[in-house]
Write a structure and sequence with these properties.
The protein is built from 12 helices and 12 strands. A 5-stranded antiparallel sheet has the order 2-1-5-4-3, with helices on both faces. The protein binds adenosine-5'-diphosphate. It comes from Dyadobacter luteus.
């Protein structure tokens, strides 16, 4: 049938809509009309349901809490009521419904009934739940892994300490080793044990990083003054200069932020070019919702092929005989920036200096 009257055409279309259940209710919530979408979503035919109260779509719990009636009175009072929750189909199965109840008025503005539109959002809600569950599982696995690293590294320290103690005892109690040259071997073993101790300590620190952290305001200018003071010996010995300007006050985990700056600055000093004064600068600018900090040096630089690898734990690009280190510093930096919901990266070319940058949200909206 062809409808010339646009009003009739609209009514006919409402009846045909399948993605929304569109029904009209009288003042007491009795169902007066029913479209095809309602049949599809709720499973009743118009014949089954017209004349019944719309509360049949609600779970027994919602019914005894009086939810259907309170939604109607809200729509009566405010003209509109919105609610999302589990609803019941004819066959007893449930779906997640997003419901808008709108009051219909006569020409005098008196409420005469309601129009109720329901969307089935079950798929969306289940997907959201799935993502939440997976996130919770991932967080739990992460905690377990950190716990494992903590316990393993803690337990590994013990036998190492014993090795070192007994080597010291051997040196004290068997002085003849000085004559036989065995001392050289003992020293190498001792140095390796020391180094392993350092690596394990680094792992322990890495696993514990941020476990007790609380966010506060951090004035980065003041922080940088303190760091410069702390590093004055290293700056003096290396002849490097450290400058900084226009650093903001941020909301952050203070000890971790300090460690982040210290790691980046000490790397910038350590990886300077021989025969050239090291110049390190710390700056910051706001980019949208984030502060973007940069630590720039004029040092040896890093080839692009290694820009991602260096943030992994124990990854180093140089032998220890040239540059001392454990390869944990940048892994710590990455973990600290992750804790702050930011990103960290580097722009650099071999031999051209490096800029390590990281972002910190201006405002925190996520919880850890
Ligand atoms: P470590 O400094 O103990 O070696 P890091 O995790 O701090 O460990 O750094 C990993 C590697 O990244 C370093 O060994 C070095 O090769 C490279 N790197 C870090 N910072 C710089 C820098 N500012 N300039 C050049 N290379 C750097």
């Amino acid at each position: 049938m062809l409808y010339e009257d646009p009003q009739l055409r609209l009514l006919n279309t409402l009846d045909e809509i399948e993605d929304y259940a569109i029904i009209s209710l009288d003042l007491s919530g009795t169902i007066e009309s029913w479209n095809r979408g309602a049949e599809k979503i709720k499973g009743y035919t118009a014949h089954d349901i017209i004349g019944k109260n719309f509360s049949v779509f609600y779970t027994p719990g919602d019914q005894s809490d009086g939810l259907p009636a309170s939604l109607l009175s809200l729509a009566y009072k405010d003209g509109r009521a919105y609610h999302e929750g589990w609803r019941v189909r004819r066959d007893g199965t449930t779906f997640w419904g997003a419901v808008v109840i709108t009051a219909s008025h006569d020409s005098n503005g008196v409420v005469t009934g309601f129009c109720k539109i329901t969307r089935d959002l079950t798929e969306r809600i289940l997907n959201e739940q799935l993502i939440k569950d997976q996130l919770a599982e991932l967080k739990q696995k992460n905690r377990e892994l950190e716990q494992f690293v903590y316990i393993a590294s803690h337990d590994l320290q013990e036998p190492l300490l014993t090795i070192k103690d007994f080597m010291d005892l051997a040196k004290d109690e068997f002085p003849y080793v000085f004559e036989t040259g065995v001392e050289l071997y003992l020293n190498v073993i001792h140095q390796s044990a020391d180094r392993m101790s350092g690596l394990i300590r680094g792992l322990l620190d890495y696993s514990r990083l941020g476990s007790k952290a609380v966010r506060t305001e951090v004035d980065c200018m003041q922080l940088m003054e303190a760091i410069k003071e702390d590093m004055s010996a290293s700056l003096r010995n290396s002849g490097a200069s450290l400058t900084y300007e226009n650093l903001p006050v941020i909301t952050a985990f203070p000890l971790e932020i300090r460690q982040l700056f210290q790691n980046l600055i000490s790397n910038a000093i350590k990886f300077r070019k021989t025969g050239q004064q090291g110049i390190v600068n710390v700056s910051c600018k706001q980019e949208g919702e984030y502060w973007k900090f940069s630590v720039t040096d004029n040092g040896i630089g890093i080839a692009p092929a290694f820009h991602e690898r260096i943030f992994m734990i124990f990854q180093r690009l140089h032998p220890r005989s040239i540059y001392e280190g454990t390869g944990i510093g940048l892994a710590n930096c990455k973990k600290i920036v992750d804790m702050h919901s930011g990103i960290i990266g580097v722009t650099s070319e071999q031999g051209q200096g490096s800029t390590f940058y990281f972002t910190i949200p201006v405002k925190y909206s996520t919880s850890r």
